[in-house]
Amino acid sequence: MYSAKVMDHFANPRNVGELPDANGIGEVGNQKCGDIMKIYLKIENDTVVDVKFMTFGCGAAIATSSMATEMIKGKPLSEALKLTNSAVMEALDGLPPVKVHCSVLAEQAIKAAISDYYTRQGIDPLPIVGPLTEDCHDCQCH
């Protein structure tokens, strides 16, 4: 049902925890499925120099959070903003259809954290990040 990469990121998640000096924090959740993700970013010179996450949810939610943080660490904000849930799923060698929403939440949490960063800098995030949505489509996970 799950790929070896999903199982690895679930059993050995990367970048777990909080960043006390984070300057961008994003939290998204879905009441219907119970998954909640909080992403902490440390951004310097428009680059994600460190990233941590705390996720309450299923194994796929933890795995997608772990993979997503790995994919944006060390990247410029412009590149981090281009991360899609499809790219996260591809990096994990796929997810079952009922778990696709987990990758969507990971993408949304990163965008929310980047939006928070711009807001803290006194910059309107809407033209850069776009509108923040919490839509996990046909969530059927629990």
Estimated structural class: alpha+beta
Strand content: 15-25%
Order of helices and strands: HEEEHHHHH
Low-confidence stretches: 138-142
The number of helical elements comes to 6
Mean pLDDT: 92
Net shape: globular
The total beta strand count reads: 3
In angstroms, what separates the terminal alpha carbons? 16 Å
Question: Helix fraction?
Answer: 40-55%
- Biggest sheet architecture: 3 strands, antiparallel
Name the strands of the widest sheet in spatial order: 1-2-3
What is the gyration radius calculated from CA atoms?
14 Å
Please supply descriptive tags for the structure shown above:
alpha+beta; 41% helix; three-stranded antiparallel beta sheet; disordered C terminus; 3 strands; 142 residues; 6 helices
Walkthrough of the structure:
41% of the residues lie in helices and 18% in strands. It has helices at 4-11, 59-72, 77-80, 85-91, 100-120, 126-129; strands spanning 24-29, 36-44, 47-56. The chain has a three-stranded antiparallel sheet.
List the helices and strands and how they pair.
Elements: H1 4-11, E1 24-29, E2 36-44, E3 47-56, H2 59-72, H3 77-80, H4 85-91, H5 100-120, H6 126-129
Helix pairs in contact: 1-2, 2-5, 4-5
In short:
By secondary structure, this protein is α+β, with helices and mostly antiparallel strands. The chain contains 6 helices and 3 strands; from the N terminus they run H-E-E-E-H-H-H-H-H. Helix 1 (4-11) crosses helix 2, helix 2 (59-72) crosses helix 5 and helix 4 packs across helix 5 (100-120).
